Amino acid sequence: MSEIKKENQKLSVVKTGDERSPDTSYTEYLMEDAKTVPEFMVEETYEYLGSEDIDTSRYISKEFFEKERDCMWTRVWQFACRVEDIPEVGDSLVYDILDWSFLIVRSEEDKIQAFYNSCLHRGRRIKTERGFGKDLQCPFHGFCWNLDGSLKFTPAPWDFQHIKDRDFKLPEVRVEIWEGFVFINMDDKAVSLEEYLAPLPEHHKRWNLGDCKKVIHVSKVVPGNWKTVQEAFMESFHATLIHPEILPFQADENARYDIYGDHMNRNIALTGKPSPNLKNVDEQEILDTIFYGSGRMAADDKILVPEGEEARKVAAQAMRDAFNEADGHDYSDKSDAEMLDAIVYNVFPNFSPWGGFPRNLIYRFRPNGNREDSAIMEAMFLQRNHKDPDKQEKYEPIPIHYLNDDENWDDAEELTGIGFIFDQDMGNIPEVERGIRASKSGKITYANYQESRLRHYHQTMDKYIAKGPFKP
């Protein structure tokens, strides 16, 4: 299926699904980079996934939510924590998803295990929050397990003679680690984490997130389906109306979208050039909004764009210098794109690690308990360790900053300017939810290209649902 498009006084045939913004594309901008850009960033990997409408029931139906629970969440790799969250033997924390609760434990210096967080006696959750101990004791009656899940102590052993004849070890859930991210999977037959994440490990090898530590972690309950919340962060062209203050320096309609297999996609939005929807922006205004409008730098450190130079290149060099001073690493050969751009990878179903070299932003989205109309959104930042071991401070696990219902993301001062951006999205999400429920057609229409990542996720979801329910 094609359409005829008149461009530059010539008739050309544009295949449906191949349409792009007439403005300079992200890939074309990469050709102007001051440094060599990695090939995996230059290469476009897009697949037309159709133009069919999406049924609104996928966002508001309890029945569909239960299909996700029974068929998908039980089979996928889920980011549970960072290795630095539990640095010492005996450290543990709790990861909850829907009705399931898991106890993530550092059982040995170089070993992390995860157990179903349920006492084998009366079922109470063994732990409810992060903690430290030489064993895992249930606070109800005192049944106790070693850190490796083997039974350590039985209260009133005379009355539990029968458990000697059975395996009373805590049931484990599968654990694998990538770049310091601890993942769990309830399906013992699932593909390896490395295969599931491909090509993320190959792309991120250059950015080495395993050499980073988590320095910010903020969490908030959001009134909306977990997909509604997540999808607010999966395309760039909403910025025109939702985030107008970033238009002087951020691409939106000319951002890039890539799709890889079933579980991976990517959105890259250029920083340092104005939106196609904003005209006549001078280079100094671009630089000012990048740094001082976003809180990246203090106004008293103001940098000027020399005559005849571009704000994007000046900003990228300023970032190279600032990060070299902060952590001692050499960024002299790193591309403008890797120092500035929003390089957002999405791992199905709910994990979003940013690429590049500055503080890496990580998103995680999940249902709030068993509610189809409430979600938990988390934002984390990773910071690179100093190159000189003598300048590396001892890391202490940071607490999660839980925002209450009356607090905004911007109230979390550690997020600096990005909290305000999140709040703009939060103001939109409840109205998306209400509008979906008010829809007469019961359908949602996606853009072919700019919302291809949303469609990609729904098609992957359908593949899991087609497998039917799975009981771990």
State the strand order across the main sheet: 4-13-12-7-6-5-8
Average pLDDT reading:
93
CATH-derived architecture of the largest domain: Alpha-Beta Complex
Helical residue percent band: 10-25%
Question: Would you report the number of β strands?
Answer: 22
Number of helices: 13
Report the sheet with the most strands, covering strand number, pairing sense and barrel closure.
7 strands, antiparallel
Quick synopsis:
By secondary structure, the protein is of the alpha+beta class.
Write structural notes for this entry.
The protein is α+β, with helices and mostly antiparallel strands and 472 residues long. The protein folds into two domains: 21-61 and 212-466, Naphthalene 1,2-dioxygenase Alpha Subunit, Chain A, domain 1 (Alpha-Beta Complex), CATH 3.90.380; 78-185, Rieske [2Fe-2S] iron-sulphur domain (Rieske Iron-sulfur Protein). Helices cover 24% and strands 26% of the residues. It is built from 13 helices and 22 strands. A seven-stranded antiparallel β-sheet has the order 4-13-12-7-6-5-8, with no helix packed on it. Strands 18-19-20-14-21 form a five-stranded mixed β-sheet. It has a three-stranded antiparallel β-sheet with strand order 9-10-11, with no helix packed on it. Helix 4 (62-72) crosses helix 13 and helix 9 (283-291) runs parallel beside helix 10 (311-327). The radius of gyration is 24 Å and the shape is globular. The relative contact order is 0.16.
Topology, please?
Blueprint: E1 2-7, E2 10-15, H1 26-30, H2 39-42, E3 54-55, H3 57-60, H4 62-72, E4 78-82, E5 91-97, E6 100-108, E7 111-116, E8 131-132, E9 136-137, E10 144-145, E11 151-153, E12 172-178, E13 181-185, H5 193-197, H6 200-204, E14 212-222, H7 226-231, H8 239-242, E15 256-260, E16 264-269, H9 283-291, H10 311-327, H11 336-340, E17 342-347, E18 351-353, E19 360-368, E20 371-384, E21 401-403, H12 418-438, E22 443-444, H13 452-466
Parallel strand pairs: 14-21
Antiparallel strand pairs: 1-2, 3-22, 4-13, 5-6, 5-8, 6-7, 7-12, 9-10, 10-11, 12-13, 14-20, 15-16, 16-17, 18-19, 19-20
Helix pairs in contact: 4-13, 9-10
